[in-house]
Specification:
Structural class: mainly beta
Strand content: 35-45%
Number of strands: 8
Helix content: 10-25%
Number of helices: 2
């Protein structure tokens, strides 16, 4: 596992109606993307090894990976980017997404820790 800390949350990053978090590494987020993203700073840089049934921990909440899209590894390695969906896996899931269970999005804040 490796850790990231949330360093900023864009003004339109969290929605009451869409259970999605778009994450970018602090060195790759643009001004436009920053408005809709959660920016993370990695404590230790290494390649992502996220697989189905792995756990992702956000603060004290543990989630299980139910689906990982084909683009997750490359986006994560190059940009620190991944989109977390707190929903059931749809018939046509997003290629850049990780779908998590339980399907309940928690409150995330500056200073939150994410363990992959």
């Amino acid at each position: 596992m490796f850790k990231a800390n949330v360093v900023s949350i864009g003004e339109n990053a969290i929605s009451d109606t869409e259970p999605i978090i778009i994450l970018f590494g602090e060195n790759s987020v643009t001004d436009n993307l920053e408005k809709v993203s959660v920016v993370q700073r990695f404590e230790n840089v290494q390649s992502a090894d996220i697989t189905i049934n792995n756990e992702i921990k956000i603060d004290d909440q543990v989630y299980t990976v139910k689906f990982k899209g084909d683009l997750v590894d490359s986006n994560f390695s190059m940009l620190g980017h991944v989109t977390l969906y707190f929903t059931e896996v749809p018939d046509e899931p997003q290629n850049n997404a990780i779908y998590l269970s339980p399907e309940k999005m928690l409150s995330i804040h500056v200073g939150s820790t994410i363990e992959y």
